[in-house]
Amino acid sequence: MFLEIIDVFTSGLINGSVYALMAVGLTLVYGVTKAFNFAYGSFYNLGGYFAWVLLIPLGVIGGYFSVFFMAIPFFFIVGYLLEKVLISPLRKYDDWEMKVMMLTLGLSLFMDFGYQAIFGPRIKSLPGIIEGTVQVGEVVLFQQDIVIFILSLSGMLCFWWILNNTRTGMAVQAVAQNPAGAQIVGIPKDFIFAATFAISTMMVGFGGILLCQKNFVDPMGSTDIMIKAWVITAFGGMGSIRGSLYAAFILGMLEAFVGWYFGMIHVQIATLTLLLVTLAIRPRGLMGRE
Amino acid sequence: MLKINKLNTYYRESHILKDVSVSVDRGQVVIMLGPNGHGKSTLLKSICGLVEKIDGQILYDGQDITGLASDKIVNLGVTYIAENRELFPYMTVMENLKLGAYSKNARGNEKENMAWVASLFPKLMQRQNQLASTMSGGEAKMLAIARGLMSDADLLCIDEPGLGLQPSYRVEISQIIKEISRQGKTVFIVEQNIPQLIEMADKIYIMEEGGISFEGGKYDVLNNEQLKEIFLGL
After folding, report:
1. What is the ipTM of this complex?
2. Domains of chain B
3. Residues of B whose CB is below 8 A from A185
């Protein structure tokens, strides 16, 4: 019983860490632009397919090391172009936030069906980053899980550091806290918006690679990820990075324990119940600001 | 230094500024008076690239800056200091100041400007780790001015710094503006709650219903009982 709980706890922790990595990116975009990116889940899948294409058909030298090395610039550029080409032309409209939601929703469908057309409707599996186990006392841990945990944690630390220690990071926060103030001090909003999309796409792409190699690449799996990311963002408080971090780990744990005790089929309903109850009691989420 | 010719601005359906022409010379303190809601703030914002629909011509040092994006204008050395402060609420005083020096032209002189700001606002420096959102109205106003100075601007467009403040803060603001001007900066200021400022003015404009209704020196206003009473309450 005790060992089982440790197992469940570890799985919650691992999933929570990757969710945190992804949700922080999503909440950042919302915090800065006040628009919601509904194609976020499809970019998660893009991470999975990116790794699959490089590892299986292309058989890239260096394996996952090369995949990660190439993923960072790839997803940064994809996110940057997404904002420049599709999102920024909408900003001249008064209700552009609404238009962004519609556009990203459409983009998400387009990408999901695109994956099916290109890669076929069947799920793909990725090789593990690392095989084998580690034994700590009586507890057996997969090395793969440890690597996922370390990588997503380092991803978040990098993100945190950039946000608080670079001029661009501070400018991103400035736009989120007061767009008019940011304009006054001469922060170029267009660049910051594009940079924010680039960073968040990088984070979700990275998260996609990490989780898809543990699970599968599923062309229709983006909805599930989108719902999770959305629940975490709303539960943590829209736009609050710290809130998303806590929410991601709470959700990871909830999923693991509900799945273990009641069965996987109840996981989604449990997370949505948690969200609804939280929002009913505290509409701005855990750490959202008025 | 600043020359505005026949500026018109629009917000949605309304026509705010109507054929406004203003000129400010280097090193001057120019004050804009006039009733509330008649376009004074809009004029300052237009200069700084913060108003979308504008029409006419704004020349800064001979360069046409009409319709330029605000970050480009800040880079040229023009800064707006907002009446409602527009600080970054969840950042500290120090972080707000550092972001004041975001523009490329300000980065090189960040240290010198920080030292200057510290000498002008010793009280802010004592609170450098306090969050901007937890400051009182007067302190926040001081921070907004200090943040504006960090931009290394030559032309400061200051919007009603004394609005809603206690008399002691107003006196302090007038002393600070005197010091800013003494450093060779050009000040274009919308303010009518600080009589001491009028003494420093090289030129005074009055704006009514989106147009300039008066232009003159400080004595033209001070010797005109009617203007003095209407616009300065003296």
Report:
1. 0.93
2. 2-232 (3.40.50.300)
3. 74, 99-100, 102-103, 147, 151
